[in-house]
């Protein structure tokens, strides 16, 4: 779908200021809602309470609401005449992490925490949706707010697509999403082109021949076999990939055996691959299989190895034209708080939605760390030690200006497209 859009940075800033004039009223319910979401996190595909709160808030704001999309997904639609159709997405799920923040609104769920900031994303998009609904004189088109489950396991976006998201929302002109990350609160960062890596997790089972630890000659030791595979896998990146390419290959788990003097009959390895190029991704995945099969043959393994791919995330590549428009609007509205974002090896499944809807997209980051705390850590060269990153049990975005910035960013980005 193509629409003629006549918006410029000055026009966007003027309209954004008018829409965001209602931010104090929205902030009054946003902050308590954020604390509630943070205190009641839900794991992937279990976001029932969160989805209920989202749907209720969207209805109160005047949006048409569709629930149960892809399981626990929620879609809110706000139509305001003819014009571009803009999709804004927030993910909802938490992580199996025990919180260690000492916040007064820390997680009340044992072993579950919003350690990646998805509660922030939900709160900001709900705020932006209400702001658009309160100020329909300043834009034309359709805002589609998508609240997605199960980002952390890489299949939530795909689940919504397979459950008929395209038929539900119709054609769209552009899709946008954002993520809070460990940078000073109040800052925004954008980037054109590859911004987040593709990710693949793989479970590999290799087989030996078990026996007594005192008689290794009668066995095929799967621990030795697994160890050789780990060493050999490291040469794929160092000796088979062009040095100009960024590839991360990590073996995160090896499990074998039950007792010190018993040689088991199999070993299980789990690894994770991050790539920024589809051809490199394909080549490395093939090389992993080749190395494992070769080492099994070298060890005289009695059975073929088994491979299971899971938790696959697509490469996130920001469309150049869409990103340029959003960057210009951010620069005009936020000034020097809008900066360039380096590509990162984290991964995200948002791209599955615009890919299915055949629409260009952009994805940006916004900071959530207290500015003085961040500057002190930089000055002491202790950013890695003193600043908790996403997925840390200590990750806790400051309430403000994090929520304001994320809400403002969605409004400004949306208005850069909406007429």
TrEMBL record:
Q: Which InterPro entries match?
A: Amidohydrolase, Bact_exopeptidase_dim_dom, Peptidase_M20, Peptidase_M20_dimer
Query: A GO molecular-function term, please?
Result: N-acetyldiaminopimelate deacetylase activity
Q: Keywords, A to Z?
A: Hydrolase, Manganese, Metal-binding
Chain coiled-coil ranges: none
CC cofactor: Mn(2+)
Q: What is this protein called?
A: N-alpha-acyl-glutamine aminoacylase
Which species? Mycolicibacterium neworleansense
- Describe how the cofactor binds: The Mn(2+) ion enhances activity.
Any one biological process term the GO annotation gives: diaminopimelate biosynthetic process
Where does the Peptidase M20 dimerisation domain lie?
A: 201-292
């Amino acid at each position: 779908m193509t629409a003629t859009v006549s918006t410029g940075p000055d026009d966007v800033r003027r309209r954004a200021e008018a829409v965001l004039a209602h931010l104090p009223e929205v902030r009054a319910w946003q902050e308590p809602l954020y604390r509630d979401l943070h205190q009641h996190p839900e794991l992937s595909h279990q976001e029932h309470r969160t989805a209920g709160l989202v749907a209720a808030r969207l209805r109160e704001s005047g949006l048409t609401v569709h629930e149960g999309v892809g399981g626990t997904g929620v879609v809110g639609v706000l139509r305001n005449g003819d014009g571009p159709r803009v999709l804004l997405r927030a993910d909802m799920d938490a992580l199996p992490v025990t919180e260690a923040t000492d916040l007064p609104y820390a997680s009340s769920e044992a072993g579950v925490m919003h350690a990646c900031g998805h509660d922030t994303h939900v709160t900001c998009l709900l705020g932006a949706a209400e702001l658009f609904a309160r100020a329909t004189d300043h834009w034309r088109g359709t805002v589609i707010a998508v609240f997605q489950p199960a980002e952390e396991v890489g299949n939530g976006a795909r689940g919504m697509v397979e459950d008929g998201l395209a038929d539900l929302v119709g054609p769209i002109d552009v899709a946008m999403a954002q993520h809070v990350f460990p940078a000073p609160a109040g800052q925004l960062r954008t980037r054109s082109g590859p911004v987040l890596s593709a990710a693949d997790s793989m479970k590999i089972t290799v087989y030996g021949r078990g026996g007594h630890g005192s008689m290794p000659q009668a066995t095929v030791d799967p621990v030795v076999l697994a160890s050789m595979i780990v060493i050999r896998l490291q040469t794929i990146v160092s000796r088979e990939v062009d040095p100009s390419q960024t590839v991360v290959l990590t073996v995160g788990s090896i499990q074998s055996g039950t007792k010190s003097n018993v040689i088991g009959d199999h070993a299980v390895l789990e690894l994770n691959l991050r790539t920024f190029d589809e051809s490199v991704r394909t080549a490395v995945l093939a090389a992993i299989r080749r190395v494992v099969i070769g080492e099994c043959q070298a060890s005289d393994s009695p059975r073929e190895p088994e491979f299971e791919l899971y938790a696959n995330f697509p490469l996130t590549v920001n469309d150049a034209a869409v990103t340029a428009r959003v960057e210009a609007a951010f620069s005009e509205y936020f000034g020097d708080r809008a900066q360039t974002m380096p590509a990162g090896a984290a991964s995200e499944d948002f791209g599955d939605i615009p890919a299915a809807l055949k629409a260009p997209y952009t994805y940006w980051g916004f900071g959530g760390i207290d500015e003085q705390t961040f500057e002190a850590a930089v000055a002491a060269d202790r950013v890695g030690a003193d600043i908790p990153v996403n997925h840390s049990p200590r990750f806790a975005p400051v309430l403000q200006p994090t929520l304001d910035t994320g809400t403002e960013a969605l409004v400004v980005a949306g208005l850069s497209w909406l007429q």
